[in-house]
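hey team, just a heads up i'm posting the complex here instead of the shared drive bc the drive is being weird again. everything in one block, sequence lines first with there labels, then the predicted structure for the whole assembly after. its two chains so it's a bit long, scroll down
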Amino acid sequence: MKRISSVSVTVSALAVAGAFTLTAIGPTVFAQGRGAAPAYKVDPLWPQPLPNHWVFGSITGVAVDAQDHLWVVHRGGDSLEANEKGMMLTPPTSSVCCTAAPFVLEFDAAGKVVSSFGGPGQGYNWPQSPGSIAIDAKGNVWITAAGLVTPPPAAGGRGGAPAAPAGPADGQVLKFSKTGQFQLQIGKPGQSTGDDGLDKPAAVAVDSAANEVFIADTGHRRIAVFDSESGKFKRAWGAYGEKPGADPGAYDPNAPAARQFRDVTCIDIAKDGMVYVCDRTSNRIQVFQKDGKFVKEGIVSKNTLGAVVPGQFGAVSSFGSAWDVAFSNDAQQQYLFVADGQDKKVVILNRSTLAPVGTIGQGGRQPGRFLAVGSIAVDSKGNVYTGEQHHGKRVQKFIR
Amino acid sequence: MKRRNVFIGAGFIALLAALGVSQSVLEKKALAQGGSGISAPRFEVDPMWPKPLPNGWYIGQTIGVWADNQDHIWIIHRNDSLDPVEAAADQNPPTGECCKKAPPIIEFDQAGNVVHAWGGPGQGYDWPDSNHGIYADTKGFVWIGGNGGTDGLVLKFTRDGKFVKQFGKKGVKADSNATDHFFQVAKVFVDEKANEVYVADGYGNKRVVVMDADTGQFKRFWGAYGNKPDDKDLGRYNPTAPLAQQFRNPVHCADLSSDGFVYVCDRVNDRMQVFTKDGKFVKEQQYQKDSLGDGSVWDVAFSKDPQQKYLFMSDGRNSKIRIIDRQSLQEIYNFGEGGHYPGQFYSIHSIAIDSKGNLYTTETYQGRRVQKFVSKGIGSVPRKEMGVVWPTSTSR
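-- predicted structure starts here --
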C-alpha cells in the first residue's frame, strides 16, 4: 500500500477555440476527473532512496521502456554544488554524503534501481552534458549530447560570470545496449558542419520499424533523420518543414511567429506517425509527418519568456513553455503531456486540437511541485514521470 | 553524570577514550534490550507537509525555524536568494506564470497552512542584509538575527510583523568584545524567566552574548571553553590538530535547556560545547569530526520530556539529524540522507520541535524546503544509520 496524497493537479475544461494560452488556475485544488483530462496525484515516495549515498544531478531525460522501467539520464557530479557532493571533493568534506549517481539509471516500477551505467569510455565521446534519453524497440538506449550553456556577458555578479564551457562543443548522439555496451555514435564534438554534423542535439526519437532515428539538432535549428543502424544521414527540415536557416533572435510574444526554430528540445513520434517537436523558447509545438511535411502547431503559453542565470556549476538556461512532450497511454494517444519548465508545471493538451485541458503541479521543491521540469514520460498504465533540471534534480511519479 | 567529569577540560586523547567507553556502554545496553537494542525517539517524514504555498509563492534559502507555544511553525528564508528563473512571475515583465517571492517570515499552523507572512525593510529599523535565525517567544514576539555583510543586530517584532525594537546596528565589523552590537548573528534564544536573550554571535564574531531582553544591555559574553573571545583567524579546521581554544565562525546556535545549560553549535569545529548560564564551560563533544567545509554541528532542539533527555542536532554537512543523549552527549543514532526527496536534505540548516515532539527542519543553499518529521514515540531503532525515514504505513 502506497500512500498517495492528492496535490497539485488542476483540471480545467477550458475549450478556448484558437487561444491556447492557459491561465493559472488557483493553487492546487485537485479536481476529480472534472472535464476531459485524466487526473493525477503525485507519489511522494517514488523512487526509493538511491543506494550508496548517490544523488541526482540536473536531470535532462526520462524514458519508459517496454517493461515499464523508467530510464533516467542526468548531468552527474558536474552539475552538483560542492555542498551536495562532499564525498567527491579533494579532500572529501564528508565521508557519508554524497556522491553523484551514475549518469544513466534504470528503475523498476517499484522505484528500485535495477541497473546503471554511463560516463567516458572507449570508442565514443561522452557528452559535456547529456540531453534526452530514448529506448528503442530493441531495448537500446539512445542519449544525446546537448552541450553546456554559454553564460551571457551580463551574467557576472559576485565572483564574476562563470567561464564559458571548455573543449569542443557537444555534437553527437550515442546508442548503447541496455547493459551499457557502446553501439553507435552519430556526429562528433566540435564537428558540426555538413548534413551529418550535429550541434548540441537535445533530443532523439527512434522509429524502429523504419530503422530511423530522429534527432532534434538544436544548434542547427532542424530535425535530422539518420539510419539507426548505420548512422547514415537521410533527411532534415526546419520549422514549418522549411529549410533550416538563421537564428530568429530573442522571442517576442507580440511579434509574428518565427519561421525558424529557436531551440528544438524534444522530438517524439506518435503511434499514428505524427512527429511532435518542441520549439522551447518559441513556446510552441510543431507537428510533422515523418517525411518532414508540416501539419500544424500549437502554442503552450504565449507570454512565457525566460532567463540565463549563473550558477555554481555554470550557467543555467530556462526559457519557454515547451520543453518536452509525452503521449497518453490510451490507444488513440488522446492527450499530449508538455513539460513546461519555465512555468513549473505540466500542461495537458488534447493531442488532436493542441488545446489545453489541464495542468499538473506548480512551482516549488515539495513533492508534486517543480523547478525546471524539463523531461516527461508515460508508462503503459498511464503513470506520468517527470525529470527536473537545474537545482530541481528529481524524477517524480504521478499516478492516474 | 558520571561521564561529565571526564569531559570537563578533557584533552583530545582523553576525549577519544571517553568516546570509546560510552560506545561500549551503549552497546551493552543494546544487547540487554535485544535486537540492535537501541531505544530512542523515532520519526517519520510527512511528505505532504506543509501544504502548497498560496499566491504562487516560492521560498529561498531557509535559515531558521521555530515552533511556538501554539504549535505554529515559523520559518525565515532569504527571498532575495531566489534566482530569476525561480521568481519568474516577479520579473518585469514576468517571464513565467510561476513563481513569486514569498515574504521572508512565514507562520504555518499544524496542518501546514500559511497563517501569516511578513517581513522585509520598514520604518524605524534596519532589515538585515541577510536574515538568519528565528525565535517566537510565549509573549507573542518574534526575534530574528542577520548574518549579512555589515549586519550587527537583532530585531524584535510582534507576531503579526509590527516592529518593536532593534538591538545593535548595521555597518559594523568583527569585534567579539564589543558591548553595543553584534556581528552577523546566527540565532536568538529567549530565556523568558530571566528576561534574557542568548545570541549566537555568530558569523563574524566568535562568542555567545547574553543581553537584557528589554534594554538590550549586554550582561555577559564568552568564547569557546568560556575563554575571553578572540577574533584571531584560526585558519581552517583540521580534524587531526588539537581542538581550537576559540570558536570558529559561525557560532551557529546558543540554546538554553530547561535545567539551565547553554548548548552552543561550533559548526565548523564539528563540536557542541555546553556551558552554565553564566558562561562556565561544562563539557563538549565532536560529531562526525572528519567533516570539513561548513562543519557538522548546525543547530539543536531539545526533546519535550521534562528532563529533555534527548538532543536533536541538524548536521548540514552530512545531511543528517543526530539523536543525542543529552547527559552523555553521545549520539544514539541518526537519520537522513542527501537529496531532494522527502526525508532527504541538501544542507539541512535549522531544527525545531513542537509540543508533540514533531521535528521541523529547514534547508539552505539549494535545498529550500521546510520538512516535518512526525514523532513516533520512543522505540527500538534497528540501525545507528537509519537513512531516509519514510512512513512505515506505506510499506512497499
